[in-house]
Design goal:
The structure is a single chain. The protein is an alpha/beta fold. It has a single domain, classed as 3-Layer(aba) Sandwich (Glutaredoxin), CATH 3.40.30.10. About 40% of the residues lie in helices and about 20% in strands. The strands form three sheets. A five-stranded mixed beta sheet has the order 3-5-4-8-9. Strands 1-2 form a two-stranded antiparallel ribbon. α7 crosses α8. It starts with a helix and ends with a helix. Pfam families: Thioredoxin_2.
């Protein structure tokens, strides 16, 4: 009976939920992305008020890797529900002209912010701590950066690793070790 339940659960979690639609800016839109004024200090405050972590998604129109993530990874119920429940996601456009207020107070366009933060590829996700000094940029404050497209397991592990604050200096398990352990647990069927 336990095997049947595990098989049903595995199929359920592998099923994609509603796929993201393209916005007017050519970027994929999900129901868990927030439409904000892109003042990162305010966004961090809102995330904290909701008990969530702030994540900045840098994407671009026509990005095949962004499309892959939005069609194959984010629609999975286990991934999308984890992000929705634990993260406050703000999407930014690598070539966009919308103004962003960085944590250090600098107001610049999305594309200038991408250059300032050294983001060259999409998708890139910057994971923010719960508190940021007023002299820090998003890039210098980030506790982790996820550069590129990954499979569902790696993506979910990264979001979980950040959410559980395993990046702290007190943690003995860096992301690679954490991810390797989670892969082994999934292979053994011993994940929750």
């Amino acid at each position: 009976m336990r095997r049947i339940w595990m098989a049903v659960t595995a199929v359920f979690f592998a099923l994609p939920s509603a796929a993201a639609e393209l916005g007017d800016d050519g970027l994929h839109k999900t129901d868990w992305m927030r439409d904000t004024f892109k003042d990162l200090r305010e966004d961090l405050g809102e995330a904290n008020a909701e008990g969530k972590r702030l994540a900045l998604f840098m994407e671009q129109r026509g990005c095949i890797y962004c499309t892959k993530m939005h069609k194959e990874v984010y629609p999975r119920e286990d991934v999308s529900s984890y992000i929705r429940e634990n993260f406050f996601v703000v999407q930014l456009n690598l070539h966009g002209d919308t103004e962003v207020t960085d944590f250090d107070g600098e107001v610049l366009t999305e594309k200038a912010a991408a250059r300032k933060w050294g983001l060259l590829f999409t998708p890139s996700i910057l994971f923010m701590p719960e508190e940021v000094d007023e002299d820090q940029s998003a890039q210098s404050a980030a506790v982790a950066v996820m550069p590129g497209a990954f499979g569902a397991g790696t993506t979910l592990d990264m979001f979980t690793w950040v959410n559980e604050k395993l990046y702290s200096l007190d943690s003995e398990e860096d992301f690679q070790r954490y991810h390797a352990r989670r892969i082994q647990e999934r292979q053994n069927g011993s994940t929750d």
